[in-house]
């Protein structure tokens, strides 16, 4: 691998990067469960917020990180050298950025703290600035600036903290920016400055505001500031700027003391401290707290909680323990220690997605907070193995968002199970949304063995939109609420199994002219949003086909394991199981759509509330018939071959009803998505998988950026989607989009193409961690662009898929209806020098350490499981395909011994 800028320090994932300001777009997340969401850069830029309408600092996009002058800043003024920024964020220091002999700086970061060290260019003075968000119930970010005199003579200086206080909604950044500053009420107190706008101007209306934004500070032993600069224009001075403020550069006297009130100005948390003399070898620290609260605060109370060095250090240690314990729920050990440490950062990412949603980090400037429907289910994949205690509750509540027409709510509330009618009255249906819940639920059932979950009751979401938002029921009124009702006016509840069946049955009938499922508003690729009328998603037709097959098997398992012979479904839904009463020809799109229309008419404005009882075996057979028809249809009609002789599955039809993939005058067109789900779901035969892999290597693999999401289509595709308006090699148009690339690897592993899957995963790791090119901190990005830069770091669903693939496919540690299935697919290079590879993970309420011993260094395909020991005791082998099953009962018997070590000896296949 090429040399990279950052290097790991120790074995906990801490990394260091020298001269970090030499690289643009770097930022790091700082967050807690209380809702404080920060980002920070090597020059202490970034943003601090608790939501879309409550930014303490100015909202920033990625470009603002190096163009805006507003940042967390801390200044030192000396008579000899004048003003100096501990973060390098001054006009003078910026001018020296490309000069010889520039200041030394280094960023060091761990879980979840960020530290910048900078040495003064002219004085023997070193500044160490530590930032983190403590794991308390407060929305607060803490910063400690530690100054050390490394020379042999005293240094006299005056210190000034300067954090601009934006204090309002992100919408006000350009919409009434000045007008909303007139709302500011600025107060000084003993320890700092508070801003409480009188009103909030945002999408909620002009409301009386209670939220307060504060910057408090003290010296290391709690001594308060000597004065304040609360008003930004006074702090910077006429003709000044935040990176060269008059108050610091000319060492002005503080503007105000405690208990002073200002109104109608842009604010800054300008805290002046008394001049001090630092003896040779001596250090002095300053503590700054940046707070968002629901009302005016008692600064004495918060000073006691946060404004001393001892308290800061204790909270930092607590913070490190908290994140280490969370990430210790899954630890990989392989032959590549650096990759194992990189995986710890990947493990963090699903947790960040849960806390940030898809917003509030610089690249994610398009979101208003919260998560989308797909996120609810995909983020649970990782939470299943990291935070399993709440997963059942989350899954159960998620199903309350399903509509009776098979679609789902698109506006998701802050609390589990809270779904809201679309406030813009322009709902959009993503055709893939119904496919994901089963995948996540199956993982839960396999991990837990909790088949009873399928029989739990849950409500359905209801608003005025019907027929997958193609129709409108004007009789529905907002005061009726957002739950489906029966004709008697009661809230209707169906089983989770009914919800799942509905989500997969409706799409089966909702087909376009080529008998594939309609694309509607888009599928997984949000950029394919311009083919709502005649567009079809072949890729997700394959996904739904595999779902129907899996549902058929699940029903039979439910019967076998629970002794249940029948299930109850809503009377209206039964007609979708057409083979049980009035079979139709699946070759006829007209018949399918007619049946679906009759179903739509039967559920408006209410359902009857009556149930039918059906044989599990009959329902399973109906689902199997549908799945097998879809698979045969796809193999027969959607297999394309290029003039060069490469073959693969077409993934889409556009809004003109044209097949998208294959030979084209502007070059071969191919998508990775169309291959992933045909491979993963068993639609592609083994022979076809071989050919698909060859075609992907030919048309989509690029050594510079990895596996592209699609080949070059050429031109803007107004009949397919906005994605093709993006430059090729960026985002959803031909970049290495990590999510689908990881899923491609997962699909290959599932089908036994381990060498091929390993190469795909390895490419993601090597591209992401090659800092010289990717220019990102450890972790997996949303995508890698044409130049190899990692983009949209930290918040990506690909992290959940990567973590899950590594655990369940590579290390082969997974559940099977509650039992533990071990089926390793490790390559020889993934074992350490002693021939061992291991993973620690949660399973069945306990921590397991699974250790694979491969003393002969046998490669995958040539080994099998020879013996298994649990806590040193030999266990009987119960083989299951290429793996072995360990019953949950056996694990329960041994659970009294605490955490369990399972040692697996691999032997050569005779």
From TrEMBL:
Residues 623-808 form the Glycosyl hydrolase 94 catalytic domain. Keywords: Glycosyltransferase, Transferase. Pfam families: GH94_b-supersand (PF06165), Glyco_hydro_94 (PF17167). The keyword NAD does not apply. The keyword rRNA-binding does not apply. It comes from the Bacteria. Residues 125-306 form the Glycosyl hydrolase 94 supersandwich domain. This is Cellobiose phosphorylase.
């Amino acid at each position: 691998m090429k040399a990279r800028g950052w290097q790991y320090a120790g074995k906990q994932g801490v990394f260091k990067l020298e001269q970090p300001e030499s690289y643009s777009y770097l930022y790091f997340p700082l967050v807690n469960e209380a809702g404080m969401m920060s980002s920070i850069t090597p020059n202490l830029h970034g943003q601090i917020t608790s939501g879309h309408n409550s930014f303490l600092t100015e909202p920033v996009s990625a470009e603002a990180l190096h163009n805006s002058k507003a940042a967390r800043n801390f200044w030192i003024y000396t008579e000899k050298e004048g003003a100096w920024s501990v973060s390098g964020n001054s006009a003078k220091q910026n001018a020296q950025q490309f000069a010889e002999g520039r200041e030394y700086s280094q960023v060091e970061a761990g879980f979840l703290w960020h530290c910048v060290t900078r040495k003064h260019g002219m004085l023997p003075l070193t500044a160490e600035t530590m930032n983190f968000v403590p794991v308390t119930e407060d929305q607060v970010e803490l910063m400690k600036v530690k100054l050390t005199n490394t020379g042999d003579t005293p240094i006299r200086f005056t210190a000034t903290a300067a954090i601009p206080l934006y204090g309002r909604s992100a919408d006000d950044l350009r919409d009434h920016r000045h007008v909303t500053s007139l709302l500011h009420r600025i107060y000084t107190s003993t320890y700092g400055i508070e801003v409480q706008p009188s009103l909030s101007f945002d999408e909620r209306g002009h409301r009386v505001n209670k939220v307060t934004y504060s910057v408090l500070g003290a010296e290391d032993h709690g001594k308060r500031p000597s004065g304040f600069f609360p008003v930004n224009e006074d702090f910077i001075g006429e003709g000044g700027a935040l990176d060269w403020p008059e108050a610091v550069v000319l060492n002005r006297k503080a503007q105000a003391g405690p208990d002073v009130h200002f109104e109608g100005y842009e604010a800054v948390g300008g805290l002046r401290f008394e001049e001090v003399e630092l003896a040779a070898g001596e250090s002095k620290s300053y503590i700054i707290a940046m707070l968002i609260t629901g009302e005016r605060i008692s600064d004495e109370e918060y000073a006691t909680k946060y404004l001393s060095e001892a308290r800061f250090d204790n909270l930092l240690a607590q913070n490190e323990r908290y994140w280490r314990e969370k990430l210790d729920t899954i630890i990989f050990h392989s032959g590549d220690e650096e990759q194992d440490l990189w995986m710890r950062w990947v493990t963090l990412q699903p947790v960040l997605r849960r806390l940030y949603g898809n917003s509030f980090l610089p690249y994610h400037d398009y979101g208003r907070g919260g998560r989308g429907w797909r996120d609810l289910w995909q983020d649970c994949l990782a939470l299943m193995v990291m935070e399993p205690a709440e997963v059942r509750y989350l899954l159960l509540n998620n199903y309350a968002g399903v509509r009776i027409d098979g679609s789902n709510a698109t506006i998701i509330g802050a609390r589990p199970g809270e779904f809201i009618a679309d406030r813009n009255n322009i709902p959009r249906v993503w055709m893939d949304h119904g496919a994901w819940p089963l995948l996540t639920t199956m993982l839960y059932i396999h991990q837990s063995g909790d088949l009873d979950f399928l029989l739990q009751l849950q409500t359905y979401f209801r608003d005025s939109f019907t027929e997958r938002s193609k129709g409108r029921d004007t009789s529905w009124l907002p005061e009726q609420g957002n739950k489906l009702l029966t004709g008697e006016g009661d809230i209707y509840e169906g089983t989770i199994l009914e919800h799942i069946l509905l989500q997969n049955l409706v799409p089966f009938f909702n087909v376009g002219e080529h008998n594939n499922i309609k694309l509607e508003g888009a599928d997984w690729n949000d950029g394919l949003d311009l083919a709502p009328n005649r567009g079809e998603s072949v890729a997700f037709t394959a996904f739904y086909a595999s779902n129907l097959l899996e549902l058929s098997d699940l029903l039979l398992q439910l019967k076998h394991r629970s002794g249940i012979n029948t299930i109850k479904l809503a009377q209206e839904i039964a007609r979708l199981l057409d083979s049980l009463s009035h079979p139709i020809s699946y070759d006829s799109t007209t018949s399918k759509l007619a049946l679906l229309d009759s179903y739509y008419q039967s559920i408006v404005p209410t359902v009857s509330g009556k149930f039918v009882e059906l044989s599990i075996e009959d329902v399973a057979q109906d689902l199997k018939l549908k799945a097998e028809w879809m698979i045969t249809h796809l193999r027969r009609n959607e297999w394309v071959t290029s003039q060069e002789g490469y073959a693969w599955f077409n993934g889409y039809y556009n809004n003109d009803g044209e097949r998208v993939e294959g030979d084209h005058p502007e070059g071969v067109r191919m998508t990775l998505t169309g291959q992933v789900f045909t491979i993963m779901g068993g639609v592609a035969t083994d022979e076809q998988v071989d050919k698909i892999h060859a075609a992907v290597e030919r048309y989509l693999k690029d050594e510079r950026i990895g596996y592209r999401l699609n080949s070059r289509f050429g031109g803007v595709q107004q009949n397919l989607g906005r994605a093709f308006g993006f430059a090729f090699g960026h985002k959803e148009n031909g970049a290495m989009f990590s999510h689908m690339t990881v899923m491609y690897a997962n699909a290959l592993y599932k089908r036994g193409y381990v060498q091929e899957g390993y190469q795909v995963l390895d490419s993601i790791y090597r591209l992401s961690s090659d800092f010289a090119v990717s220019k990102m901190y450890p972790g997996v990005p949303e995508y890698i662009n044409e130049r190899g830069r990692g983009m949209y770091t930290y918040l990506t669903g690909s992290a959940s898929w990567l973590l899950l693939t590594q655990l369940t496919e590579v290390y082969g540690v997974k559940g099977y209806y509650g039992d533990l299935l071990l089926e390793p697919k490790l390559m020889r290079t993934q074992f350490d020098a002693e021939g061992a590879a291991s993973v620690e993970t949660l399973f069945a309420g306990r921590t397991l350490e699974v250790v694979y011993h491969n003393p002969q260094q046998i490669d995958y395909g040539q080994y099998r499981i020879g013996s298994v020991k649990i806590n040193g005791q030999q266990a009987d082998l119960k083989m299951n395909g290429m793996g072995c099953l360990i019953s949950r009962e056996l694990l329960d018997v041994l659970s009294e011994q605490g955490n369990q070590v399972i040692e697996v000896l691999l032997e050569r296949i005779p």
